[in-house]
């Protein structure tokens, strides 16, 4: 995992995700999940491309089941986008990078319009 992608968990969820002033993308994953491993490099690339505009976090659902349960994460990978402490978009399953970029760009343009 790169320096641009931080680990989210029970201990830092509130401070890193819910209290963040910026748009936050959280990748809910697990070590044993094949599609999660396929999405991981895309998540890293997005973190680099959107550095300074988007905070990217990964949450291991096996290590933080309480947080995963709170957001009803039933299958992984699930990508949740948070704005002002609220989930604003949810992607379930492995997706191609252009789909992620389309959603991120739309959310960022909304975010800058309301900021």
From TrEMBL:
Coiled coil: none
UniProt KW keywords: Disulfide bond, Electron transport, Redox-active center, Transport
Chloroplast is among the record's keywords: no
InterPro entries: Thioredoxin, Thioredoxin-like_sf, Thioredoxin_CS, Thioredoxin_domain
Residue stretches making up the Thioredoxin domain: 1-109
Family: Belongs to the thioredoxin family.
PANTHER family, A to Z: GEO12009P1
Matches recorded under NCBIfam families: thioredoxin
Protein name: Thioredoxin
């Amino acid at each position: 995992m790169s320096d641009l992608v931080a680990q989210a968990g029970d201990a830092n969820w509130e401070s890193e995700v819910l209290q963040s002033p910026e748009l936050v993308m959280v990748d809910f994953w697990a070590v044993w999940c094949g599609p999660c491993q396929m999405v991981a490099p895309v998540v890293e690339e997005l973190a680099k491309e959107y550095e300074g505009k988007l905070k990217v976090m990964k949450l291991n659902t096996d290590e933080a089941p309480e947080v995963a349960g709170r957001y009803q994460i039933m299958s992984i990978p699930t990508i949740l986008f948070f704005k002002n402490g609220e989930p604003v978009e949810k992607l379930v399953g492995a997706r191609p990078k252009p789909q992620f970029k389309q959603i991120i760009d739309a959310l960022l343009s909304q975010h800058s319009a309301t900021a």
